[in-house]
Amino acid sequence: MKLIDLTVHEFIRDLDSPKPAPGGGSSSAVAAAVGAALSRMVGHLTIPKKKFKKLDTETQEEIIALHETIKDEVRKLLDLVDDDTLAFNEIMKAFKMPKDTEEEKVERKKAIEKATHKATEVPLRIARVAHGVLTRLRPLLEHGNQNAVSDIGVGALMLQAGLEGAVLNVKINLASLKDEDYKSKTTEEVERLLREGKEESRHLVDEVHKRIG
Questions:
Q1: For 123, which of 71, 76, 166, 181 could close a Cys bridge (C-beta 3.0–4.6 Å)?
Q2: Does pTM surpass 0.90?
Q3: Domain residue extents for the chain
Q4: Residue 48 has what DSSP assignment?
């Protein structure tokens, strides 16, 4: 059974166990998906309203397009919940490969490197998607249903948690890789995603606090 098909209770139970997976990567994808879904909820509570219909056409189209884009991003994040755990399991499988001969040792090292690279790419995708949603929420904050403005704040916080959690998982996997060029480029990217995500999350949450007093 896929992780995303579990109940909330079942997923939490799996986290609260001696099993190493699902762990922080899958949890980060869940957090980001929750944040993105909350943003969609605000869109659902905004687009049908008369006040929204009074906005200029360009603004309406921007909000509607954003609403549809986030729908696709939620789907991606849900897929990544399971992808992260599957990638971790591949690493564990590689470590269990035989290492009795020199040839076996070489093959095992190659398999571990390949699996670790994949396990780095999955949380990197989580971070990219979370960042992409988080940095596009300002129009929804500005023009969305103000009765649900707190949900934009919560959504931003969840997206930021998912982003930062994913970055942590990228970094811990990078430490085991031998490809220095990949490590350097990926570290530079995740530091940028993290920096921009923190700035945007702080802006959104501060603005929500101002609006609700």
A1: 166
A2: yes
A3: 25-212
A4: T
Query: What is residue 5's DSSP assignment?
Result: G
8 A C-beta contact, residue 162 and residue 35? yes
Question: Which string of b and e fits 114-130 if b means at least 16 CB within 10 Å?
Answer: ebbbbbbbbbbbbbbbb
DSSP 44: H
Element (DSSP H or E) covering residue 66: helix 57-95
Would you mind telling me the total number of residues written for the chain in this entry? 213
Contacts of 190 (CB under 8 A, 6+ apart): 124, 127, 167, 170, 171
pLDDT tens-digit series, residues 15-62: 999 999 899 999 999 999 999 999 999 999 999 999 999 999 999 999
The two counts, helices (H) then strands (E), for the chain are 8, 0
